[in-house]
Known about the structure:
mainly beta; Immunoglobulin-like; four-stranded antiparallel sheet; 15 strands; 8% helix; 32% strand
Amino acid sequence: MNAWGTLISERLAAVVAAAIILSLLGCGKSPPPPTEWAPAEVSQPSESVLPTTEMVGGDTEPPSVPAGLRAELRPGASQTPPSPPFAEVAWEPSQDDTGVAGYLVYRDGVELGSADALVYHDSSVQPNRSYAYTVCAFDAAGNKSEPSSPLNFTTPRPNQPLRTEAATADHTPETPPNPSPSMPPPSAPVNLTRSFNHQKKEFSLQWSPPADGSPVSSYKILHTMDSGAKVGEEFATTTSTDYTFSANRLKQGRNAFRVQAMDAAGRGSPPSAPVTVNMPGQDQ
């Protein structure tokens, strides 16, 4: 091989060697163009949607209990076709050392949802039903307050006008005076019975007005945890002669109910004869 051939061979060998070195070092190649934006590297949340205590500096103090619960039945937004009315539940703000993050709304002990504001719209209410609402506040650490005092709210019958006055948990409207104060209080309601809807898990109470035709403006449903020997505490109020409620509102054991008729002056009749509901334990 002459000198010219030797020079070409030496330079070709140097080029090949340099290419091998660059390949080993990962140089000389451009990365392929991305097909989508690369997601930011963020930590995945835990099972709970609420922040943990460690994420907010060890806060363990829950907010104060919400107060001032009130509810009113509002007409649906659409008129053509008509949409069903909804219950507007509102309350006063809770206080917290780091700030309230939101509220959890419960109906008959079952969580309906959460709210950032001081109002919640329950669009699943049915006519001629009674519901018990409670509200809990929570902060950014996930600390929950105790539940509020329950608000018993009764919807009207389908052919009755919507309520124009809000029902409240902390205030009972004044009762108008009886136009005939010399009249005796109403007599006791009669024929109190109960029934159970297995599909909806709801109890219904039905009764008849006083047999002597005493004027009645409303009825109080009384509840106690015994055979009915005690009169019991107020469970709900209604203007009709039937009342439906969720089985979730009852406690384990023997629940006794009586009904008391009320006149326009707020005077009550003797309680009716009781009916009982036996609620088994969770393991039965």
